[in-house]
Amino acid sequence: MNRKKKRNLQELIMYVVLIFIGFMMVFPLLWMFLASFKTNEEIYGSIKLLPSSFNWQAYANGWKGIGGNSYARFFVNTFTMVIPTTLLTVASSSIVSYGFARFQFGGKKAMFALLLATMMLPNAVVIIPRYILFRNLHVLDSYWPFYLTAAFACYPFFIYMLVQFFRGLPMELDESAYMDGCGTFQTFVHILLPLMKPSLFSAGLFQFLWTYNDYFNSLVYVNTVKKYTVSLALKLSLDAESVVQWNKVMAVACIAVIPVVILFFTAQKYFVEGIATTGLKG
User: Does some domain include residue 15?
Assistant: First the structure.
């Protein structure tokens, strides 16, 4: 076998393996979509992937929601919580990371080490102190616990990620801006932030996905059904009926996945670029 045929065979095997892995990753979504057209009897009594018929009634029934609250309200609640949280996280984390990456001040190394140490704390450890704090601030049963946590840069992972990106930008950019009469804030806004677009998109995408899919924190801080997010509403759908109609649950779950999929493929270029360039020295 000559070298060209050997290379072609290796590429063929590689593509077959990648297609198989891709199919395995997409299969749960495919099964969920097709299960939305099946009855409970088909789901439990057959291993066939395709349903006996494609009836979209489950989507209409599932969208009606629970207790007079449709999923239109739950989606509005979700985006009301997620979008400000994402924007505040990106803004606060970029400012804090700018301070750690570009300025020298007393206790900087100790504070940054403490910041990194908080990344090791599981959510179960900090949830009780945070709950007590927000209870004393009288902001429970609202989205303010998420807004305040994001506004005060309480997500050390994003700060660490953005610090690494800042360190990859040469200091000569700041010095040139200072020589042209820019202040610290002007340098940050007009010079550095445009260069940080990939990393900011990556941080925003991560935060959007985590907040959108968050169930535990939403369950702790939000108590009123009218303020429930999609993740809480999906769980409530399972508890509202004695016999769960799985086609309705799968139908709404398919709809819930759509915004995440659209966002990921829309911002995929910036996401990959931000992950690839974070931590590189320029």
Answer: no
As for how many domains the chain has, the answer is: 1
pLDDT of residue 90: 95
Q: At what angle do helices 71-102 and 144-151 cross, to 10 degrees?
A: 20
| Global confidence as pTM | 0.86
Decide which of 254 and 124 is more confident.
254
Whether 260 and 212 have beta carbons less than 8 Å apart is answered as: yes
Q: Give the CATH number, domain containing residue 94.
A: 1.10.3720.10
